[in-house]
């Protein structure tokens, strides 16, 4: 009996099946993958928080999601300021702006500070938060009680409008793309992150998220409880 012929036939069948499988796999790859000469799709880079006053900022880089903001009457221009020239807020003495704002006037003549732990005014900053090519004025102050205050002013047609006023305990402020991210610690050991976005009228709240720190369990291991609790939005005038 010749045993070699069936063996050769099996080998030929295996070779045919292998070739067929290779063709099928090649066909699947051409459907879902990139063909020859096709460019790879571009990758969208998401903005990351950029600290505006780094000395006051934590190392966290979480970005909260978005919640609906409430609507309030539009801000009124500050009275007592002369009409701004072509230089806009960049040429204006920031202390004059603070003196014209009733909420910031008591802090207008305080000295400047360059690190946390002192009472005074942080160095003023200019940043385009509205996308119109003209920078807004950002002023933050720290008080003896440990609370911080942040104000943002926008120039329109030579007039100055307060478009954000918010306060909190030992605030750190970051820029997240065109938005502001304000963080502050909570009494229960967690921290709160509030995100503000220009809505065409003011810097309004798009998210307000509270993060709870994990507490150790009975055996010393971290507790598995949830650490994030989103809350409702505000108008940014806290």
Automatic annotation (TrEMBL):
Give the highest taxon in the source lineage: Bacteria
Stretches of Basic and acidic residues bias are at: 107-117
Coiled coil regions, renumbered to chain: none
Q: Identify the stretch annotated as signal peptide in this record.
A: 1-21
Region Disordered, annotated ranges: 39-91, 107-131, 209-238
Which keywords does this Swiss-Prot/TrEMBL entry list? Signal
Keyword flag Signal: yes
- Polar residues biased stretches: 222-231
Indicate whether Signal appears among the record's keywords: yes
What name does UniProt use for this protein?
Lipoprotein
């Amino acid at each position: 009996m010749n045993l070699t012929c069936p063996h050769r036939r099996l080998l030929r069948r295996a070779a045919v099946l292998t070739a067929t499988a290779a063709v099928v796999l090649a066909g699947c790859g051409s459907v879902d993958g990139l063909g020859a000469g096709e460019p790879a799709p571009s990758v969208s880079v998401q903005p990351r928080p950029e600290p505006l006053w780094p000395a006051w900022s934590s190392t966290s880089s979480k970005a909260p999601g978005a919640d609906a903001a409430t609507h309030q009457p539009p801000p009124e221009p500050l009275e007592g300021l002369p009409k701004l020239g072509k230089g806009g807020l960049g040429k204006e003495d920031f202390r004059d702006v603070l003196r014209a704002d009733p909420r910031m006037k008591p802090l207008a003549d305080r000295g400047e500070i360059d690190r946390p732990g002192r009472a005074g005014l942080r160095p003023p900053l200019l940043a385009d938060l509205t996308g119109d090519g003209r920078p807004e004025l950002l002023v933050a102050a720290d008080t003896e009680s440990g609370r911080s205050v942040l104000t943002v002013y926008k120039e329109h047609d030579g007039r100055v409008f307060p478009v954000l006023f918010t306060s909190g305990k030992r605030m750190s402020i970051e820029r997240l793309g065109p938005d502001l991210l304000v963080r502050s610690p909570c009494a229960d050991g967690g921290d709160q992150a509030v995100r503000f976005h220009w809505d065409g009228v003011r810097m309004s709240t798009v998210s307000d998220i509270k993060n709870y720190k994990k507490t150790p369990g009975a055996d010393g291991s971290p507790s598995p409880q949830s650490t994030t609790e989103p809350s409702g939005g505000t108008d940014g005038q806290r």
